[in-house]
Structure formats: structure tokens, C-alpha cells
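Pinned message: reference record for HAD hydrolase, family IA, variant 3
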Amino acid sequence: MDGKNKGYQLPKAVIFDLDGTLVDTEKIYHQGWHAVLAEYGVQVTEEQLNQLRGHTRTDNNSLVQSWLGGDEEKMLEARAKRDAYFDQAIANGAIRVKSHILTLLNFLKDRGVHLGVATSSYQKRGLSELEASQLLQYFEVVVYGDQVQRGKPQPDIYQKALEKLEVAAEEACAVEDSVTGLLSAVHAGLRTYFLPECDLTDEEKKYVDHPLNGGTFASAKELVDYLKER
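Predicted structure (C-alpha cells):
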């Protein structure tokens, strides 16, 4: 745990990322891409797949297309297969809430903190994840990736969430698991708690020391313990 500024009080609102922060979906995404890309004779590493984390669907499609030799038709076909793989995982009940997230949500809710979600996932996918995980009830506001013009790391999605929650950036904070999401939140002026799910590259580590990074935590439990000390 590397928390900062322990005199900081609880905010009026907390805005969460979805995939990798609230729900454990990144493993399913990776499994799906491994299975689908293998059909095209393409093998990718976990490090390559981690490049997809937190980015827009358009950006990720471009990266997948590069893995498929620049063939757009193959990329669209592979994307459809991967989406079907994920939809089947949801139908099979594979979506799991991340460890100690319910403790964190209840801790904040019990103290009158308003809760929102800002996710790069499009509404159809993101809503199905929130419903399958039974988390939707916790949030007053959800902003999806297809509801803003520019995705993460641009600040648009957090700015829209702040607008819907009717709070100023200095009255709120964010919880993110990717550097892309962290940058989106801090660009919107939000103090951000960082719960990285995978090892960071040297390039990514440069951004973690941003003044608005409220701390890096190994788990949601560490973040809850930190907030309780206030």
C-alpha cells in the first residue's frame, strides 16, 4: 500500500472503472482472445493482451488488426467471435465481483458517498456485466464508452460522470486498475486510487507518480483499511 495525504477526507462521490476494478473480467477477455486468435494461427503474449486494458473498442480493434497482419475483415470476424465468447461466459455465470469490492462499496455507501461508474465498455456489454454481478444497484450513475466522443485516457467519460452526479472534480475521486484509466481520471481533475491488476511496464510506471494519484493499493481491502484510518 502506498497511500498519500492521510488527512484527506472522504469525498462526496467515488467513480469506479468496471472491468478489472469492480469485476474480474480481464481473464475472460484474455482467454477469449487466445482462443479466437489461435484459429488464425496467431499467438499473443499476456503482455500484448495487457495493451488492450482500459482502451476504447476502436483503439483495441486497431491493435488486434495489426496482430492479424492488417486484415480488417479478419479483425471484424475475430472481434465478433471474441464478443460471442464473452457473452457465453456471462450466460454461464462466469462474471465474478473482485475481492473485497462489496466491502468497499458498502463502506462508502454507508457513509453517504455517491457512487458512479465510468467504463470504456459499451452500454450493452457494461450493463450486462453490472446486472450479472448484481452491482448495478449500488450506482446512481453509469457512463459507458459509447456515450462519449473520446474514450480513456481522455477525460470525457469522467467529466460526464461528474456532471451527472452534480459534483465538482475536487469533491470526488476515482478508482482505477489501468494506467489508461488513471490518466483519464486525473486529466478530469480527480484524485484517483490505483489498484493495478497486472505488472506495469517501465513506461506506465512514469505516470503513477502523478500528484492526483491518491495511492497505489494491492487490493480493495487495502484501500478500505486506508480509508478507515482517516
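Pinned by admin. Summary line: Residues 72-91 form the longest helix (20 residues).
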